[in-house]
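Could you please consider the sequence and fold appended to this message?
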Amino acid sequence: MDMPTVISIVALLVSIGSLGITVWATKLSKKSLDHAIDVQAKGEEKEFERLRAELLMQIADSRRLLDKTRIEIGALKADFDAEPQPVQVIMRNYTNLFIDYQPKVEASIGQLDMLWKEVSSWSKEKSHHELMDTKAVLYRSLKDDEVIYDSGVYMVSVFKAKLEIAKQHVTNAIR
């Protein structure tokens, strides 16, 4: 064998070895990329689930406040209905708490229940964008619910005070 043939064979073997190393490195890079993509996807899924759980807790907290308001108004209505007719007549201007306000509280609770069902049934196909949109809508709703709760607390206290005055007035009129 002459020298140019030996050099050619060695060059061919080096080229084949380089090709093998390149193929191996490419497979290794592909595995690393697939792993990185999988880790990224799992991280995004965990973040989505965390945000969804946070959203569900906010809905539950708001519903609890409104339930508390609804129960307080319901108990007050039961007490009012047990009062004698003269007290009820005096208090008729304040019964909007039961006629107008209580249905609004119940409607808000219904909306929160629907939102809870919707958010809790979300699958992984929901996008982060949709989650953030819902979170923004919920934030506004929560602020509205806070106003409803604060108004309810105020109206219940006013109604109780006026009811006591009406009872005293009826008691004094009977004497």
